[in-house]
Design a protein that fits this description.
- The chain is of the alpha+beta class and 277 residues long.
- It is built from four helices and 16 strands.
- It folds into two domains: 80 residues, OB fold (Dihydrolipoamide Acetyltransferase, E2P), CATH 2.40.50; 158 residues, Glutaredoxin (3-Layer(aba) Sandwich).
- Strands 1, 2, 3, 4, 5 and 6 form a six-stranded antiparallel β-sheet that branches. It has a six-stranded mixed β-sheet with strand order 8-12-11-10-15-16. Strands 7-9 form a two-stranded antiparallel sheet.
- Helix 1 crosses helix 4.
Length: 277
Amino acid sequence: MLRQRGAGGYDVKGRVAGFSDDPRRLIVEHEAIEGYMPAMTMPLVAKDSTALDGLAVGDAIGFRLHTEADSSWITGVERLPDTAVARHPAGPVRAGAANGPQTGAPQPVRVGVEVPGFTLSQNQNGKPVQLADYRGDVLVLTFIYTRCPLPDYCPLMSKNFARLQGMIPPRLDDGQAPDVELLSISFDPKNDTPQVLSDYARRYTDDLSNWTFATGTPQQVERVTGLFGVFTEQQDGQITHGLRTVVIGPDGRIRERWRGNDWTPKQVLGAVRRVAG
């Protein structure tokens, strides 16, 4: 169990699980952080990328995790004796967990290509959602799970969607301009029941007329994450995952796509306006 929070963040121990194209980003399998998050594997951003020089997959490391309202980062990265950290501090990976597209999962859809139909069995009201429901609309979708602990992952996606919702013009009933709809898809169907999704939604918006929170069966979730190339992996009940935000046009084709958390509501609104004409 990891140490409690100090004045400057949380002291954490773990092992290097991988690297990213971003030289500041390190994938770490870390111990539980008492009072904050369970043991899990996740990408973390180093304040100073040179602190990661010389590290290799499997190295035991210690560092300090800092969090603010919309961001997190690590400092003080140091290599530890191998005996200081368990071989798999986050526990075994669940059999069949995603590691990118799974066997049998669809190939990710490219920008400009029509998205094949999909169904999610329940939204925040317990009703099914289908991609076909949004035909003729501009759809902006992203992926979350409600227990996600890091402020610059799922919570930031939901905050940005709330900001985006406030920037979208009121619905037009003249039949000429397409409506703009928001869809947040949870890849944690076991935990994110309709009631949980409803409670989570109310943390970010009072208007669910054009913003839906939904999940599906494990098979449905595997299909939709595969269609959009979203990495997920489950370990001891927690989910390591990537981020993806997509604009789909009225014709069902992907018009814009963002990986990670660097997009802004203003950027997405610009894409929406271009698509809506």
